[in-house]
């Protein structure tokens, strides 16, 4: 019985730990966005190429004034959304997938704002679409599943057009 009580206590603690880690991640994103805005204000534009390749083949990120400002805006909105989710104002039941999906959505959004080429814009766009589809199905009701199916079909068509445009 003592072991069952300890397991119940751990299960009750996990959502709070997840929310705290998610909130900490959102605060770190806000701090990084502020740092990026400052770096862009000082340098005019910040470029980085990942993967150890030169720019035609590397994953390139370019931060200019607009991109850095949009990342800052996304960070503020993401932090506000996670704070609202923790409040008593949201009557929806908590899901263990909510915080990771919100962070995936933020990662895709910020990646799309900072990408340096069209193909990687498409990749970040797909990350946003997958995370938003996951957020849609969290409701588990018939209405949510119908909306998610409609969203999925429309996004597959839209994704095909974006991919053809990139090609």
Characteristics:
6% strand; single chain; globular; mainly alpha; two-stranded antiparallel sheet; 167 residues
Overview of the structural elements:
This protein is mostly helical and 167 residues long. It is built from five helices and two strands; from the N terminus they run H-E-E-H-H-H-H. Strand 1 and strand 2 form a beta hairpin. Helix 3 runs antiparallel to helix 4 (118-136). The longest helix has 42 residues, at 2-43. The radius of gyration is 19 Å and the shape is globular. The relative contact order is 0.10. The mean pLDDT is 87.
Give a summary of the structure in a few sentences.
This protein is 75% helix and 6% strand. The chain is mainly alpha-helical.
Write the layout of secondary structure elements.
Elements: H1 2-43, E1 46-50, E2 59-63, H2 65-86, H3 98-114, H4 118-136, H5 142-166
Antiparallel strand pairs: 1-2
Helix pairs in contact: 1-2, 2-3, 3-4, 4-5
Q: Could you list the spans in which at least 5 consecutive residues all have pLDDT below 50?
A: none
Placed side by side, the strands forming the largest sheet appear as 1-2
Number of H- or I-type helical stretches: 5
Structural class: mainly alpha
Q: Given the C-alpha coordinates, what overall shape results?
A: globular
- Percent of residues in helical segments? over 70%
Mean pLDDT: 87
| Succession of helices and strands | HEEHHHH
**Beta strand count:** 2
Radius of gyration: 19 Å
Q: How would a crystallographer describe the biggest sheet?
A: 2 strands, antiparallel
Distance between the termini: 62 Å
DSSP strand content:
5-15%
